[in-house]
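Lecture notes, part 5. Sequence design as translation. It can be helpful to think of inverse folding as translation between two languages: the language of shapes and the language of residues. The source text, in structure tokens, appears below.
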């Protein structure tokens, strides 16, 4: 039986609204599909409710959380319970392995990467470069405690690229991004005031909720007074922004 990863119990607890709040963004999806190139068979590791799974290829999903598996829509790719560190497939079973915003939940990154490379000839991984963490105003001004959370161990991008023998692509985040991860609302600050929106952000949901509520009340006051727009209102006019999200594509 595979050893549970950190995402298992975590997403059983906080992942109940992911399917509604984490709607794949078409522009990010297009970049991922381009990276998959001619792969006809794909294993989606840490698949969650199925975000960014291609529908024009044969896909098998691997996910440890029963709550996340239950949110997969009708007609989604077949899914198995399991963890990245022990993929239940023979060597070379797939053309490509896909991992989107999941690496920071794995118990053993090196083993998980080795497993993806074992079962697939190409690896495509969407992750976040923490060098950019404090560049996000939501972190810098309101939730600096989010930086370096022990529950979220994002790999160093250059080190991950070396492990994967991968090229690094910038993933610009559109101002109207539909995927509600933590940085998605950089130009729409009002969204962070909604608890339903925050429910799709694992980084916020694992924090002290009294603290988060108090800081979001301060954000609301800054929006009402115009203080936020004085400091960050220029962001509202930008079509997209580099927040540190990176796509790694093995050579």
């Amino acid at each position: 039986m595979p050893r549970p990863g950190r995402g298992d119990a975590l997403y059983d607890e906080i992942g109940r609204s992911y399917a509604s709040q984490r709607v794949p963004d078409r522009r990010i999806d297009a970049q991922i599909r381009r990276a998959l190139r001619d792969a006809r068979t794909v294993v989606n590791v840490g698949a969650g409710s199925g975000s960014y799974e291609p529908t024009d290829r044969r896909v098998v999903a691997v996910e440890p959380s029963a709550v996340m598996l239950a949110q997969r829509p009708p007609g989604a790719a077949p899914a198995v319970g399991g963890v990245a560190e022990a993929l239940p497939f023979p060597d070379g079973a797939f053309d490509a392995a896909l991992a989107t915003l999941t690496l920071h939940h794995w118990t053993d990154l090196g083993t998980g990467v080795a497993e993806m490379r074992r079962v697939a000839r190409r690896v495509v991984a969407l992750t976040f470069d923490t060098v950019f963490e404090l560049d996000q105003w939501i972190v810098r001004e309101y939730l600096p405690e989010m930086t370096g959370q022990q529950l979220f161990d994002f790999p160093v991008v250059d080190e991950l690229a070396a492990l994967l023998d991968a090229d690094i692509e910038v993933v610009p985040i559109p101002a109207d991004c539909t995927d509600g991860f933590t940085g998605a609302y950089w130009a729409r600050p009002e969204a962070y005031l909604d608890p339903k929106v925050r429910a799709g952000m694992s980084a916020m949901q694992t924090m002290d909720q009294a603290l988060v509520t108090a800081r979001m009340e301060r954000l609301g006051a800054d929006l009402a007074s115009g203080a936020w727009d004085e400091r960050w209102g220029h962001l509202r006019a930008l079509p997209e922004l580099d927040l540190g999200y990176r796509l790694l594509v093995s050579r």
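The translated text above is only one of many valid answers, since several sequences can fold into similar shapes. Residues 194 and 216 are 9 Å apart (CA to CA).
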